[in-house]
Amino acid sequence: MRDLHDIIKRPVISEKTTAEMAALKYTFEVDSRANKVEIKKAVEKLFNVKVKDVNTIHITGKVKRMGIHSGRRPSWKKAVVTLAEGSKPIEIFEGL
Known about the structure:
Strand 4 (63-66) and strand 5 form a beta hairpin. The chain is globular. It has helices spanning 4-7, 15-20, 36-47; strands spanning 8-11, 25-30, 51-59, 63-66, 69-72, 76-83. The termini are far apart. The strands form two sheets. Strands 1-2-6-3 form a four-stranded antiparallel beta sheet. A two-stranded antiparallel sheet has the order 4-5. It is built from three helices and six strands. The protein has one domain (4-85): 2-Layer Sandwich (Alpha-Beta Plaits), CATH 3.30.70.330. The protein is of the alpha+beta class.
């Protein structure tokens, strides 16, 4: 089994994800090979919460240009984790 910190890479903080935190929905960048069961177990163990649902999205990297040179940003995987009713909020997101 992979390390929990290898599955959950970082939280995604944006205006939309901050608004979803009121409904106990948290967004993370995750390993592209991780499945929903691994993500659920990793969030439950790392933050000591009960997860109700996990939705995953593959984000394709944008094509960017600098002059005549073009390149692509890396593709990544995003997971939206919904906590169970009555669960406490995740502490790292407090104060945002």
